Amino acid sequence: MRTPRYAPCPILLKETRLQTHPYLGLWITGDGHAHHHLQPDGRYDEARGRRESAYRGSYSIDSTHITYLDDTGFSADGDFIDGVLHHAGMQLIRVPAPIASQ
Question: What is the DSSP string of 21-58?
């Protein structure tokens, strides 16, 4: 009897790619007004000024283009150019992740 072969689930492949994607993490504007946290599970959390979690939703990345879908149904996009996230007239720089102490 042959064991059936299954193709990897596209959703699991997407999650695996997102968990190791170089664009993950915290992105902030130079003045600190806006923060985007791109999470490994495909979710984002955006703070604006004193409003924590002003926008939340899912995101997808295709090459250097990011598409946001807010939980309210609003969509937006941006582009990563030379290490800078360009989104809604803002330029955000990635904050390096802290190095774990041993």
Answer: -TT-EEEEETTS-EEEEE-TTSEEEEEETTEEEEEEEE
